[in-house]
Write a structure and sequence with these properties.
By secondary structure, the chain is of the alpha+beta class. Helices cover 25% and strands 27% of the residues. The chain has 2 domains: 118 residues, no CATH class; 75 residues, no CATH class. Strands 1-2-9-4-5 form a 5-stranded antiparallel sheet, with no helix packed on it. Strands 3, 6, 7 and 8 form a 4-stranded antiparallel sheet that branches. Strand 6 and strand 7 form a beta hairpin. The radius of gyration is 22 Å and the shape is elongated.
Amino acid sequence: MIPYKTTISEAADSIDLTTLATVKSELGITNGASDTELARLITQASQTIATYCNRVFAKEIVVDHFRLQNECRSTDKLMLSRFPVGAISSVVEDGDALTADDYEVDQKTGFLWRLSSDEHTAWAQAKVLVTYAGGYELLDELPTDIERAAIVLVKQAWFGKSRDPMVKGEEVPGVLRTDYWVGATPGDNGALPAEVEGLIGPYRIISI
């Protein structure tokens, strides 16, 4: 079961998945003339990746709200919205706080199990609130594939800013022929470059 609501108790200072210094090094830029534009592109690329993956990567302290419906008043595990999971501050069932012996978490996947006598049992209370730290400490803990994807998107935006997105190809011999896309262009409808999709695909949560 996933939470019906997640509230942020302590927000991350930044969602950026790479740094200005790293991007400038990749682009071979040594001055600060383009810093503002590059910083904007980094934030945009980072948000694009987060949206595509249906998750927040930056570590924040959040509260996940779960409500078991009358027709389904039990579930074997809860799925926390942010992971990897750090410290869990509290787990509260219908107003009663649990102890650390009452639950077990898979920090990598965010699965949270209810325990009874050290055995898995069903979550059966109407309302469960979980307060915890979830996500990666940017950029120390962030997988390198995700940062690389952000860099690729920034570089694509940087080099493509002066190119007509409708141009599909150009040819010199005669003395020039330009082919244009008809209909949707690459990048429409949330499409990402294949290289980027390959890098971040393993971290994507598929919405059902």
